[in-house]
Design goal:
Layout: E1 6-12, E2 25-30, H1 36-44, H2 49-54, E3 62-67, E4 71-75, H3 88-91, H4 94-102, E5 106-114, H5 121-132, E6 137-142, H6 149-163, E7 171-172, H7 181-192
Parallel strand pairs: 2-4, 2-5, 5-6, 6-7
Antiparallel strand pairs: 1-3, 3-4
The structure holds guanosine-5'-diphosphate and magnesium ion (MG).
Guanosine-5'-diphosphate binds at residues 30, 32-38, 78, 142-143, 145-146, 174-176.
Length: 195
């Protein structure tokens, strides 16, 4: 399914501001600068939808978008570089973990990682935590256009091993050339059960 019709709903900065659970939700997570906004923009075929509405900055909220009138995309604040090794509650914003733990309509967390880099402690920590909490997730290795074909497969295998995931589970993606876009559309529709 295509995710073209998108409108910004609101930015949430506390649990009390969360909209009533309604449509199925897909949340997008990743380290700052990993390419999260670019991935969402590629998905919806816009140049800067998410950046424009999301107002990236220091005090970031959870940005809700309504897509195709049938699913909410939730752009989570990127996690930083400094707090590796801390528990999820301290290491990332409490608001986000509370949201992920309690949101009844959450169908999937897309965990976006850079295909060029090795496994990162914070990504592994998030993935382990999602598994423990039985929250479905979809790993995506992005910026694939920055590597050659051979290096792509090799790095993807290294990341799979580092994050304890299988090649079948994850998607190799590029916001630049659209690699993996159809696969992503298919998987998200399936998680949200809207295909
Ligand atoms: N070559 C390439 N660059 C990318 C890709 N995705 C993101 N970028 C670049 O990476 C930088 C950070 O991207 P952005 O989407 O703002 O990251 P965010 O902080 O995770 O939302 C920007 O300069 C993007 O142009 C990709 O798939 N390929
Ligand atoms: Mg962003």
């Amino acid at each position: 399914m295509k995710f073209v019709d998108i409108k910004f709903l609101l930015s949430v900065h506390s649990l009390s501001q969360l909209p009533e659970p309604g449509l199925p939700e897909i949340a997008f997570a990743g380290r700052s600068n990993v390419g999260k906004s670019s991935l969402i923009n590629t998905l919806v075929g816009r140049k800067a939808m998410v950046k424009v509405s999301g107002k990236p900055g220091k005090t970031q909220g959870l940005n809700f978008f309504e897509v195709e009138g049938s699913v909410f995309f939730v752009d989570l604040p990127g996690y930083g570089y400094a707090k590796v090794g801390k528990g999820m509650k301290e290491g990332w914003q409490k608001l986000i973990t509370s949201y992920l733990e309690t949101r009844t309509t959450l169908r999937c967390v897309v965990v976006i990682m850079d295909l060029r880099h090795g496994a990162k402690a914070q990504d592994l920590q998030l993935i382990d935590w999602l598994k423990q909490n039985n929250i479905p997730f979809l790993p995506v290795y992005t910026k694939s256009d920055k590597l050659s074909g051979n290096a792509r497969q090799k790095n993807a295998a290294i990341l799979d091993a580092g994050h304890n995931i299988t090649a079948k589970q994850r998607i190799i993606f590029s916001a630049k050339n659209g690699q993996g876009k159809q696969e992503l559309e298919r998987d998200l529709a399936s998680f949200a059960q809207i295909d």
